[in-house]
Amino acid sequence: MLRNKLFIFLLILISLEQSFGQALFLVPDTVCIDDSVVIENQSREANTYYWNFCSGNLAYNPEAENLGNQGTLDGPAFIDFADDGTGYFALITNHNSATITRYSYGENFLSDPSSQNLGNFGGMIPQHVQGIQIVNDDDNWYAFIVGGQRDESRLVRLDFGSTLSNNPTAHVFQNIASLDYPADLFIVSESGNWYGFTVNLNTNSITRFDFGTNIENTPTDTNLGNIGGLERPTGIFPIKYNGNWYIFVSNYEGDHITRLDFGASITGTPTGTDIGNPDYLSYPFDMTIIRDCERIYGFVLNRFGDIIRMEFDQGIESEPEFISLGQNSNLYNPHGISDVFRVGDTLYTFVANIDNSTITQLYFPGCDNAIPASSTEKDPPTVIYNQPGIYNISLVIDESTADQENYCRDIVVLEAPQLELGNDTSLTPGTSIEIGPEDDYTEYEWSTGGSSQTISVDKAGIYTLRVTNEFGCTAEDEIEVILDIGVPNFFTPNGDGYNDTWEIPFLRSAPEAFIQVFDRFGNSVASFRYGEGPWDGTTNGEPASADTYWYIIETDSSSKPFKGSVTIKR
To answer: Which 3 state secondary structure label does DSSP give 8?
Structure first.
């Protein structure tokens, strides 16, 4: 599930806890470039199938577009999205004016939304308002909000009823004493009970809410204290992985991330681990963590404009690799980042820019390196990738229905060897030459049966080499070794006793060699066996005119004929 479990409409392939539904297929983990990739569909019977073989991938850098202030924003802090069945909505907290903005998108999430400032509900929205999360329970819609400094710190619930388009009523929970400038929050259901968490910026602590079985209950709160070295914590994100709960916290001071390990239940007593990296993190404010196919990624907003990607290649409990995606001119003091979700073949996340009151859309588009790019067949065609990289193969069945299911897998396409044997070469009779590639490979398979990098050849023929690199990918090339029998390219049959015939010394040992001579128009000029004597430059008993002629010399049936030109000079 996602944090708010709402994006049915977005073709979500991303889940906090891995699950295996009825949409399922098998594909190799790794292939080589230009290999034919066979995908085996093991899904249930469905009415529609949509395959994308090169969909948006979080392993690559996103593109960005600043959408501006689409209306009524005033220092936007955090943003959350939902589809309530009637349309698509976003709720945004305005840090400056202590108000809430609602974006209504209608049926097209990527359209320009209508904007409405819902106000501050008679002062119930606290000054310095921060985190917001949309929750659905029993077909009723709610938004929970935290913020406020010191004694003004509070948790607020907005009740929308059956649709987020309604004008909500506000309720302030008065009895929560452990809050002190709460920043981000999340709320989740476990075993029929509702729980929430927030981090307290001023007291370096984390608070847990317990709502019991009804989300409208007044929660009890427990301050879990400072776990894992919290330093002005701001962002918070949960993930359930292999049956265990984890919460990640970004620390605005100290430039690090804290991982809280809760075990099998979100109500457990957590342990804390510092996984920060000050070489990349600089005033990290908010983050989102996502499972995309078999991989886990995190995206952290550094407060002054750049984004850091975390890659958990060895599992969620491993220390991630931090990669800077660089400064982005579309970000202006980024504050909160939304969940990552998929629309069609593209992945999206949205950032609230508190300084200039705008929203930035980050997106990871699909690529065009797969042939074909997509398919609507139940059993997909074979796919070929023409560039190395990590690609995302996704399947959606029964799209846009209540039975819609999604599944995706990553496939690694490896670089093939760049094999070059060079230009064809010649060989003088009675000698040998070495042929082979300059680059090193893991395995060599010559058409001669040889297995070394180079081989020695002394015969007129084509030699083929197949090599394998360290990834197991192969490539082939061939080279033709031509026997240079020393054919003169001209002679002068003028009767002066010098160079009057076309002498080919090598053929003295091959008198059965058959020679044909043609003029430039393809007409036969002469044909003879070399043992009958070298050509004297006549055709049908008459001197051939001074010109260039083409020849074919066949030494035996197993050798490739020699071809070239000879010029008669008078």
So the answer is: helix
User: Residues 6 or more apart from 521 whose CB is under 8 A from it?
Assistant: none
CA dihedral 127, 130, 136, 139 (to 10 degrees): 30
Residues 502 and 469: their CA atoms lie apart, in Å, by 50
**Considering only CA atoms, which of 349, 350, 300 is closest in space to residue 321?**
300
**Token pair listed for 550:** 């083409």
Per the CB < 8 A criterion, the answer to whether 229 and 271 are in contact is no
- Cβ-based burial of 301 (10 A; exposed 0-12, middle 13-18, buried ≥19): buried
Q: Distance (Å, rounded) from C-alpha 342 to C-alpha 14?
A: 8
Contact 501, 534 (CB under 8 A): yes
Q: Quick check: 296 and 316 in contact, CB under 8 A? A: yes
Q: What are phi and psi of 428, to 5 degrees?
A: -80, 135
Rounded to 10 degrees, what is the CA torsion of 51, 54, 56, 60?
160
Give the whole-angstrom CA distance, residue 256 versus residue 306.
15
Average pLDDT of the chain, as a whole number: 90
**Calpha distance 549→554 (Å, rounded):** 17
Highest mean pLDDT among 105-119, 331-345, 426-440: 105-119
What is the per-residue pLDDT across 237-285, written as a single tens digit (0 to 9) for each?
A: 999 988 999 999 999 999 999 999 999 999 999 999 999 788 999 999 9
Find the mean pLDDT for residues 282-303.
89
Residues 394-413 have pLDDT tens digits of 898 987 676 778 888 889 99
* pTM, 2 dp: 0.72
Say how far apart CA 94 and CA 147 lie, in whole Å: 11
Contacts of residue 568, defined as CB under 8 A and 6 or more positions apart, other chains included, come to: 490, 491, 492, 493, 537, 544, 545, 546, 547, 548, 549
